[in-house]
Amino acid sequence: MNILFIGIGKMGxxxxxHLKKLGHxxxxxxxxxxxxxxxxxxxxxxxxxxxxxxxxWIFSSMPNDDAFLGIAKYISNHVKPKTVYVDxxxxxxxxxxxxxxxxxxxxVEYLRVAVSxxxxxAAAAQLTVLSSxxxxxxxxxxxxxxxxxxxxxxLGAQEQARLMKLVVNLLIAQTSAMLAEGLTLGRLxxxxxxxxxxxxxxxxxxxxxxxxxxxxxxxxxxxxxFSPTFTVEQMIKDLSLITDAAKDLGAPLSQTQTTxxxxxxxxxxxxxxxxxxxxxxxxxxxxxxxx
Length: 291
Fold this sequence. Notes:
This protein has 13 helices and 8 strands. It is α/β, with parallel strands linked by helices and 291 residues long. Strand 7, helix 7 (135-145) and strand 8 form a beta-alpha-beta unit. The protein starts with a strand and ends in a 5-residue tail after the last helix.
């Protein structure tokens, strides 16, 4: 089984590295010279255009719809029939549906795979893997998907994995909004910052993501760490996909729209490259509190 992995950024690089450990011949491609150099440093073989015909399985990890559509069109026109295409990008349902029709026309099998988790979780093989597409292809892919994390879900034959990723990211974004409101309220009432985090993470609202954020932010005020696990600007991209899907499906997501507005405000106030939890700072400024 020959594998070609396209797009070896902060998620694609660790994911392709895990695939290599399974023992299959694997090559990688990226247009970014820096990423290519990093791939060489971890022992990955760099592929060329000829390898689209060499590959039995092609994986991709793209940053947005345009990049995904571009590489998918190229794949549909340059691979042999019965190649399996597995895309792991966070992209719109409409773009994925378009690609499904392209692949069907060229007799290419298409598996949608969304991964939940950040680059550190990818490196540690602790991602949650959401899959949809032909069940028989998922069954064949399962050993490969399992090398990225032990929680692997099959959700249906079409675009269910794409939608489930948006649902998960909606809840993640809304967690940051919930923290922003609750913590701002507490600060205005003179609750101690560290005390609030201690109580929150050890009571009913406590969750995996709450505890992860506590490790960054639950320190004394002057030591809060907003370095990004996922930036405000990246979250705006995902929230835009979510609100677009909501319009298509007729889902009333007024709270999510407010959160998206706060994210845009964070960018306008210079926090776009901080962690998405920086919308806490947006509400603190609204309330006249110092950051």
